[in-house]
Specification:
The structure is a homodimer. With about 80 residues, chain A is mainly α. Chain A is built from three helices and two strands. Chain A has a single domain, classed as Winged helix-like DNA-binding domain superfamily/Winged helix DNA-binding domain (Arc Repressor Mutant, subunit A). The longest helix of chain A has 14 residues. The first copy, chain A, is globular. Chains A and B meet through helix 3 of A and helix 3 of B. The first copy, chain A, binds a DNA duplex (21 and 21 nucleotides) through helix 3.
DNA sequence: CCACATTTGTCCGTATGTATC
DNA sequence: AGATACATACGGACAAATGTG
């Protein structure tokens, strides 16, 4: 078993990319299908990523439109 | 379709029960099988609940042992 | 208005692995 | 060894919102 499961690895990677400026607030993430292809995982795994990132307020999901990145300043994190 | 999906409804319910004292910090949640029975959902839905609650640091999952509640004071929330 | 494609949303069942008791 | 319980991932089915023509 991997030390870090896919859904956590991908979540952390996305958060890092936003913090580094590679992904900017307001920007739309690739579609689920594209993320599946990119990370070589199933759609259900991407869904776990989204549930986690949404809980932390890192992303904003809009049915039919896409998934958008928020500003790191609004993320939920430890004090 | 329900205004609030199962995984959110159940997540919120658990958080409310901890805040109200019905569930105490350190306490073990019912098993996945029991939660499925209790809420009449599949195990995959309970998993979504756990992923969300873990992101918010409301629970602590320990493989083979169980899922334990944390103290509301340590939860991630909006300032 | 309608038809269609795209995209996200939700839920389920199953297979397999790993830790604990 | 066996039972229990959590962990991860996958694929399928259907719903709902959006945009385009």
């Amino acid at each position: 078993m991997p030390a870090v499961p896919d859904y956590l690895r991908i979540s952390n990677r996305i958060m890092t990319e936003v913090e580094s400026g590679k992904l900017k607030p307001g920007e739309k993430l690739p579609s689920i299908a594209q993320l599946c292809e990119l990370h070589q995982v199933g759609a259900s795994t991407i869904r776990q990523v989204f549930i986690r990132l949404e809980a932390l307020e890192v992303i904003n999901r809009r049915q039919g439109k896409g998934v958008f990145v928020t500003d790191p300043k609004t993320w939920l994190r430890k004090p």
